[in-house]
From TrEMBL:
GO terms for cellular component: cytosol. One of its GO terms (molecular function) is glycerol-3-phosphate dehydrogenase (NADP+) activity. This is Glycerol-3-phosphate dehydrogenase [NAD(P)+]. NADPH binds at residues 12-13, 33, 50, 107, 142, 257, 281, 283. It comes from Vagococcus entomophilus. Sn-glycerol 3-phosphate binds at residues 107, 138, 140, 193, 246, 256-258. HAMAP family: NAD_Glyc3P_dehydrog. Keywords: Cytoplasm, Lipid biosynthesis, Lipid metabolism, NAD, NADP, Nucleotide-binding, Oxidoreductase, Phospholipid biosynthesis, Phospholipid metabolism. Residues 182-322 form the Glycerol-3-phosphate dehydrogenase NAD-dependent C-terminal domain. Its main location: cytoplasm. Catalyzes the reduction of the glycolytic intermediate dihydroxyacetone phosphate (DHAP) to sn-glycerol 3-phosphate (G3P), the key precursor for phospholipid synthesis.
């Protein structure tokens, strides 16, 4: 059934997801705070800063006024960077007139609180103002979804009916959605893979080969799972789309902003310079800080994440860091 949907965040991912929804016949409005970008979406049907050469459906409307955008919608999809989730949720809650389904497709952990995004949304949008909160996550670069390349991702909610509602909204011949009830596992896999992608890019930038890439992905998955399980996740979720699947795509694709940022760091560029040139969100940088703090608090060993933290926040030399991690005390692969 045709649904009215507000998409908040007209960056690469918000635009690609809004395009899928509009192509599926839904009434979609895309909200952002850059008037010229919304004007471009409405007149030229493009969003050239984020998705070059992609033509958007004419039915997809850009909307500058948040209140108008969320008026009477069946669902609201949050796709702003993690650092903006709480602020945007607060803006939304004061303007809600009905009880929409809340969906989010962002990947990260909140700075300071270390909360998952769905936790922030549940905290800010009280139950009487919304239906469930559903997480959308998996191996999916916006650039490929926007040209209808085949993609599979996960819709997660403890209420499977809500996850199935979201599955139906998005499913089509190039975009396949699976459901999952392990929200913690799906969100932690999504957030933490960006840290490992930074490392995988750095390894490439330093000139190491495929063995090193396989090593960081495999041992990275081990530490993602360790922290995720300590947070309450089902370990099996980490070999699914939102875990291993997303780790593979982010650690191997040139589309990945996290991988590209890591590659530049490996080549000796400074973090500030890398982030300035990227022009889009690189979630792994702030997630590294939140993950290290959380791992220390929960007493979970995360040597790769700690090493990347040293490079990002303590000015450690990336070349030396790569050597040092290889020379840590020997251990068994079976130690979880
Ligand atoms: N790009 C992808 O392929 C992809 C895929 C899956 C998930 N994600 C996740 O989606 C989230 C968004 O990523 P993206 O790639 O679209 O980022 P982006 O940098 O391309 O775009 C971010 C958008 O959010 C807007 N924004 C930022 N702060 C805002 C605020 N306070 N209020 C309103 N709008 C604000 C920006 O104007 C921009 O339109 C991230 O968490 C990312 O990890 C991205
Ligand atoms: O471009 P990245 O590194 O933010 O990754 C995008 C998506 O999360 C890949 O699934």
């Amino acid at each position: 059934m045709k649904q009215k949907i507000a998409v908040l965040g007209p960056g690469s991912w918000g635009t690609a997801l809004a395009k899928v929804l509009a192509e599926n016949g839904h009434d979609v409005r895309l909200w952002g705070h850059e008037p010229s970008q919304l004007e471009e979406i409405n007149t030229k049907h493009t969003n050239s800063r984020y998705l070059k050469e992609v033509i958007l459906p004419e039915s997809l409307k850009g909307e500058a006024d948040l209140e108008t955008c969320i008026q009477d919608v069946d669902a609201i999809l949050f796709v702003v960077p993690t650092k903006a989730i709480r602020t945007v949720a607060r803006q939304v809650v004061s303007k809600l007139t009905n009880r929409p389904m809340i969906i989010h497709a962002s990947k990260g952990l909140e700075q300071g609180t270390h909360k998952r995004i769905s936790e922030v949304l549940l905290e800010e949008i009280s139950e009487n103002k919304r239906k469930d909160v559903v997480v959308l996550s998996g191996p999916s670069h916006a650039e490929e979804v926007a040209v209808k390349d085949i993609t599979t991702i996960t819709a997660a909610c403890t209420n499977l009916e809500a996850a199935e509602y979201v599955q139906k909204l998005f499913m089509n011949s190039y975009f396949r959605i699976y459901t999952n009830d392990d929200v913690i596992g799906v969100e932690t896999g999504a957030a933490l893979k960006n840290i490992i992608a930074l490392g995988s890019g750095a390894i490439h930038g330093l000139g190491y080969g495929d063995n090193a890439k396989a090593a960081i992905m495999t041992r990275g998955l081990a530490e993602i799972s360790r922290l995720g399980v300590a947070m309450g996740a089902n370990p099996m979720t980490f070999i699914g789309l939102s875990g291993l699947g997303d780790l593979i795509v982010t650690c191997t694709s040139v589309h990945s902003r996290n991988w590209r940022a890591g590659d530049l760091l490996g080549r000796g560029h400074k973090l500030d310079e890398v982030l300035e040139n990227m022009g889009m969100i690189v979630e792994g940088v702030s997630t590294t800080k939140a993950a290290v703090e959380l791992a220390r608090e929960l007493k979970v060993e995360m040597p790769i994440t700690e090493t990347i933290y040293g490079v990002l926040y303590e000015n450690e030399d990336v070349k030396k860091a790569a050597k040092n991690i290889m020379l840590r005390n020997s251990k068994s692969e079976k130690e979880f």
